[in-house]
Amino acid sequence: MLSSDKPTLNTFFDLLSPNQYAVKSITVTYIAGQIRGTWYIIAARIFIRNTRLETEPFYLQTENIIAGRFGFEELQEDITEFISRCCDGKFKSDRQTFLILGRDDRRVEPNVYFDPFHAEGGQNRISVLALTGRPLADLRNSRDVVLELRAADTPFNNFEELVNELSLAGAVSDTPKVEFVTYQSAAIVPDVSRIENDVAHITVRLAKELDPRLFKLGVRQLGGGRTLRYSLSGLDFEWTDGEDFTEGRVSRPLEPQNVLQCFVNYNNVNYGYYWVIDPNLTPNVRYAALAGFDEKLSELKDWLIPEAPSRNHSRQFEIALGRFFWILGFSPMQLDSPNNSNDVPDLLLVDSKGRIVMVEATVDIINNKNKLDKLAARHRALRNSLESQGLNHVDSLPVIVTRLGKDAVDFDRDRAAELSIGILASEDIKALLDTAHIPSDCSIVFDTLSASIDRAKQERMGSLQEHTIGK
């Protein structure tokens, strides 16, 4: 492996150490493809869990595709050894070894990236170590591959269906990718952690075999126009043993109308945060105001994430997004053109720091009718306007928002990254809606979108980078 990758790997290995993470089960899923007579990994995920989960074996082989799922214990080796071998460009399955390389026959080591808080984790920590090679021939839309999958003993209608079967959505592109996924060692139990009668009842879970004395809950207590900050140690909780975890409970009196933002930590590593509220109160005044006309925001939710999406309700979706971003704290403006010009974005948002988000809404795939390039051109026009008025210091982001799920946008992620465009899919909308009743700063949403764009660009550029041999 490259010497520059060692600090990144050591960070991930520290996260996997026994004093930080109690590994209970590991599942490996992968898809490999044959390109010019050589088998390469297309995508793989290794789920490293701190709970017990039995792996359901799966294997499929056609002329040009091999796919599988197996329990890591079949390899009879240490997970750090497996990761190190992958860093050297070789992926060992329970049946054979595949390459994680590029288009030529020279020895190329994968690029290594570590994301401590992957976007799919939301407010809880899902850490991902990603290894990427250089671009290969893209087999996803190969007609031959589709016909092979349909003729297999275990048939699949298309490549995307196989990807979903193996939980590889988001990992598949024309660039080989191997992802190692870990989960939180500590977490708040959301369904039972709440405020009742001005008393906060908080329940947390700690992975089995970890030391409760190393647990810490950081707290921001908001209410009455002030913010209190303090921490609760593991000694403040009462702990009981479960099958896969240790559960801790604490109760704490509060002032009326208070809410808590709780930061979950173990052994000085943060595993996310959670809001503890009184479910009978609504601290977010914008949420409360809209709920007076749309009970429980049921109409808004149906427009944003309908149970049976209709392609004919794009206008409703745009209106709903304006309300949605307003609830989150943005100042939204919908740009309806009197002459129905297509040269304007659907929404402009301004966050609490005066930064701008340009939003394009779609109920279809994100690059339908060349939407991504059009959005990029409109964002360039925005930048030109700001700079011509001496406002080049004002940050702005182009973001496309879709009512479809993340699986449906995977095909266009690379183009969005190339154009520095952020993506919000239905899962992201739902995650933000789930906490919209809690007071928050919309600048955090801006920062999260900005970080996701930077991460996507970094991964794309890394996959195209060629290492210089011999240096």
Description of the structure:
- With 471 residues, this protein is an alpha+beta fold.
- It folds into three domains: 3-183, no CATH class; 186-276, Sandwich (Immunoglobulin-like), CATH 2.60.40; 285-460, 3-Layer(aba) Sandwich (Restriction Endonuclease).
- Helix content is 25%, strand content 30%.
- The protein has eleven helices and 23 strands.
- The protein has helices at residues 6-16, 79-87, 143-151, 159-165, 285-291, 298-304, 314-327, 371-388, 413-418, 426-434, 442-464, and strands at 25-35, 38-49, 58-61, 65-71, 90-92, 97-99, 111-115, 127-132, 177-182, 186-188, 194-196, 199-207, 215-223, 226-233, 238-241, 245-253, 259-266, 269-276, 331-334, 347-350, 356-362, 396-402, 422-424.
- Helix 6 (298-304) crosses helix 7 (314-327).
- The longest helix is centred in the C-terminal third of the chain and has 23 residues, at 442-464.
- The radius of gyration is 24 Å and the shape is globular.
- 34% of the residues are buried.
- Residues 463-471 have low confidence and may be disordered.
DSSP helix count?
11
Q: How many strand elements?
A: 23
Radius of gyration: 24 Å
Proportion of residues in β-strands: 25-35%
Q: Tell me the major beta sheet.
A: 7 strands, mixed
Output mean pLDDT: 86
Residue windows where pLDDT falls under 50 for at least 5 positions: 463-471
Q: Outline, from the CA principal axes?
A: globular
The residue fraction in helices comes out at 25-40%
Query: Number of folding domains?
Result: 3
Distance between the termini: 13 Å
Query: How would you write the strand order of the largest sheet?
Result: 3-4-1-2-9-8-7
Structural class: alpha+beta
